[in-house]
Amino acid sequence: MLRFVVRRLLLLIPILLGLSVLVFVWIRALPGGPAEALLGERATPESIRQIEDQYGLNKPVYVQYWSYVSTVARGDLGTSVTTRRPVAEEIEQRFPATVELTIAAMIFAVSLGVPLGFIAAKKYGGPADHASLVVTLLGISMPIFFLAILLKYVFAVRLGLLPTVGRIDPLIDISHPTNFYTIDALLNGNLNAFWDVTKHLILPAIALGSIPLAIIARITRASVLDVQNEDYVRTARAKGLSPRVVDQRHIFRNALLPIVTIVGLQAGLLLSGAVLTETVFAFPGMGTWLVTAIKGRDFPVLQGGILFVSLIFVLINLLVDVAYAFINPRIRVS
Fold it and tell me: Which DSSP letter does residue 79 get?
């Protein structure tokens, strides 16, 4: 197992290097520049030159890239052009919000999607199967921003049950040592704050988890349908094992590989920043942060933010590979 993990970790080096080159070239291909975006109507040739001198934007591209790689290798992601704050510090504030939202969305998607797909496969061709098809098609086809607005209207405006924006009620005053508001509320011993943070997560988590839920349900259904017709399943039934034992030990466990794959990929995508959901619910996560950086041509934020998100995505895929190895030991030799 250790050799398996080490091999996967070594693959991260060329992946991240190649990604850094692509991001670096892509950002500099964007029209305009950070100096013009930062100065706006006040931009003059002299002020633009001053900004470019300050941030080294007038140096040759290869010099800029080497400087960028050197600083990243030291753990320094640079300083934002617009806010003048370290990129790592902004990530430290923004990323926990996205993590909490992603975890909540994936809990919603997995807890409903896996049982829905399993039941649909066991009741293949029946009303439950057709109902799951309708639910999953709705989940995939409905735009996230429309579902988010609909949820806000029903549960916040009409029923007044849940909040619509932010991560916590501004009237609640607690310290944030970790920037994970749920953990911070517990560390402060404030259960009211914990419940308020949880309520702020419910609507955006449902909106964000709707598409993963539909995909997980369809993959689970297809995987279970494929496994339950295998010879070893028929043999287990012929030996007189109870349906529950057959479902748990022989069908569901062997159907897990594609389910784990799609859960890992969806979690990685959500961690990269759910722009529409965060925008509709004014949720201060990675998605809105990167969009603001694109509008402001904030090169350090874009380079550091995208590289960080890519690293997280690759690490999640590594965890998926390790989970494969635990589920199916034969994969460890590949």
Answer: B
| Residue 97 amino acid letter | A
Cα torsion 159, 160, 162, 165: sign: positive
Q: Does 78 map to a domain?
A: no
What the block records as the tokens of 296 is 């402001």
Residue 330 counted as domain residue: no
Token pair, residue 87, equals 């990129």
Inter-axis angle of helices 256-271 and 87-122, to 10 degrees? 150
Per-residue pLDDT of 77-123, as tens digits, reads 888 877 888 888 899 888 999 999 999 999 999 999 999 998 898 88
At 153-192, the pLDDT tens digits run: 999 888 888 898 888 888 888 888 898 999 999 999 899 9
Host H or E run for residue 107: helix 87-122
Give the integer Cα–Cα distance in Å for 168 and 41: 36
CA distance 3 to 331: 12
Q: How many structural domains compose the chain?
A: 1
The C-alpha atoms of residue 292 and residue 302 are separated, in whole angstroms, by 10
pLDDT in tens, 273-293: 678 888 888 888 888 888 888
Paired tokens of 188:
């402060």
Of 251, 309, 310, whose CA–CA distance to 285 is shortest? 309
User: Please, where are the H alpha helices in 123-190?
Assistant: 127-141, 144-151, 181-187
CATH number for the domain that contains residue 266:
1.10.3720.10
Residue 320 near residue 264, CB atoms below 8 Å:
yes
